[in-house]
């Protein structure tokens, strides 16, 4: 029996409950697609103030970002992690490229979950061509098309 626990928390007034349910489903889709049968992932949707504070505290960057992930499991343990999504930053990014803000949040949830699972990507040039980004976009397309039980 699968033991996957996903908890999505939303800062007041940030996104509709339906978006939180889709984020939960997207995280579960990633875990299933990656062959994970046991995991505990929390996803917090936060505003600019909170994501900036996290970015400053943990990454020494003093600006809002789109996603921060923490892989909390030890070697050989089931995935355990926290993912923080910067809702306002995601909306700005979506607007810059003419994308749907809800889809951008799903993309970031997939991205953060992959980080919890140990995926990494280079910074700067080559980032969008990395294995992680290719996997992220493939998983997002599968989820959005309703594939694999999404």
Q: How would you describe the overall organization of this protein?
A:
The chain has helices at 17-33, 48-59, 87-97, 101-116, 131-144, and strands spanning 3-10, 38-46, 67-71, 80-86. The radius of gyration is 15 Å and the shape is globular. It is α/β, with parallel strands linked by helices. The chain has five helices and four strands, in the order E-H-E-H-E-E-H-H-H. The protein starts with a strand and ends in a 6-residue tail after the last helix. It has a four-stranded mixed sheet with strand order 1-2-4-3, with helices on both faces. 33% of the residues are buried.
What profile does the largest beta sheet have? 4 strands, mixed
| Structural class designation | alpha/beta
| Shape field | globular
Uncertain residue ranges = none
Helix content: 40-55%
Strand order of the largest sheet: 1-2-4-3
Strand content: 15-25%
Task: Give the radius of gyration.
Answer: 15 Å
Give the CA-CA distance, first to last residue. 19 Å
What is the element string, with H for helices and E for strands? EHEHEEHHH
Q: How many extended strands? A: 4
Mean pLDDT: 90
Tally of individual helices: 5
Brief summary:
The protein has 150 residues and is an alpha/beta fold. It has helices at 17-33, 48-59, 87-97, 101-116, 131-144, and strands at 3-10, 38-46, 67-71, 80-86.
Search tags:
150 residues, alpha/beta, four-stranded mixed sheet
SSE topology:
Elements: E1 3-10, H1 17-33, E2 38-46, H2 48-59, E3 67-71, E4 80-86, H3 87-97, H4 101-116, H5 131-144
Parallel strand pairs: 1-2, 2-4
Antiparallel strand pairs: 3-4
Helix pairs in contact: 1-4, 3-4, 4-5
């Amino acid at each position: 029996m699968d033991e996957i626990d996903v908890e999505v928390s939303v800062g007041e007034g940030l996104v509709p409950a339906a978006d939180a349910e889709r984020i939960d489903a997207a995280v579960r889709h990633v875990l299933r697609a990656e062959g994970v049968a046991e995991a505990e992932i929390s996803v917090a949707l936060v505003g600019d103030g909170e994501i900036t504070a996290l970015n400053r505290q943990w990454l020494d960057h003093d600006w809002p970002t789109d996603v921060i992930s923490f892989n909390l499991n030890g070697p050989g343990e089931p995935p355990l992690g926290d993912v923080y999504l910067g809702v306002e930053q995601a909306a700005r990014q979506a607007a810059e490229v003419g994308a749907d803000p809800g889809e951008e949040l799903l993309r970031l949830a997939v991205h953060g979950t992959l980080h919890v699972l140990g995926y990494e990507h280079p910074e700067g040039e080559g980032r969008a061509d990395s294995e992680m980004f290719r996997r992220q976009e493939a998983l997002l397309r599968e989820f959005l098309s309703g594939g694999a039980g999404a």
